[in-house]
Amino acid sequence: MRRLAPALALGAAALVAVTGCGAQSTGSLGNIKLAAAEAVQQSAQRAGEVTSYTTDLVLDATDGEKGASKVQGSVLYQSKPQLATDIKLDTITFGGQNVPGGARAILTGDTVYVKSELINKFAGAAKPWIKASLGELDAQEQEQIKGFMAQVQQFDLAGTVKLLTASKDVKAVGTETVGGVETTHYSGTFPVAEAAQVIDPARRERLQEELSHVKDVKFDLWSDAENLPRKVTLSGSEQGDTFNLTALFRGFNEPVEIVAPPADQVGDLPKNLGEN
Prior knowledge:
The chain is an alpha+beta fold. The chain has a single domain, classed as outer membrane lipoprotein receptor (LolB), chain A, CATH 2.50.20. The chain has seven helices and 13 strands. Strand 5 (about 105-110) and strand 6 form a beta hairpin. Strands 1, 2, 3, 4, 5, 6, 7, 8, 9, 10, 11, 12 and 13 form a 13-stranded mixed sheet that branches.
């Protein structure tokens, strides 16, 4: 999908969380809705305390013109002692065409390392990995790398949880076990226009651009007793095109190891990347 697939394919990545506290009470329907809405707000605050996690994700999308697309992989993330991310995309298919070898990107400090057969072939890179300093990337020559990392960074846990605080119809629908952990299942929708107003202004324009033709996004999420997400699904449609994203979360605040690839496997970003 021209707009939906890129925005929902990477990263986040880590997505949404709500708490199980209070939403199982036996009050009126209005009270249950209120409890669920409060749970989203509480989880947005809780998600801000998470400094590391792992996400397994699958995105399936259909485009009326280009056909089916799929992205499947995992994201390892830490914010302390410095921002670091390891993204492994085992399956990348766009419009029915498979990207051979998938892709992997490692961000440590201000340096990004990318491993992609497609990029290497396009750029004529001599080694499996290429690297570049984020501060030195040229917009014209390095658009591929910058776009890739922008998609990844768009799906940090805390930022995406805020999207759900725009929901006016979230409700608890039951309890389920996800990954061996007991969770509360919530379901609802959030208006894209209102959700864009609650996120970081630096990411607002990208969200509005990628979902410019979507009015509402449907979500289902499963949160544990500590107000942390264990699973989330997002779905939506755009003039006949559709997307469905599933993300599983684990390893909250656990130590992670994100290291640069071996030096003998890394080459500098080719200067001719933007010229081919």
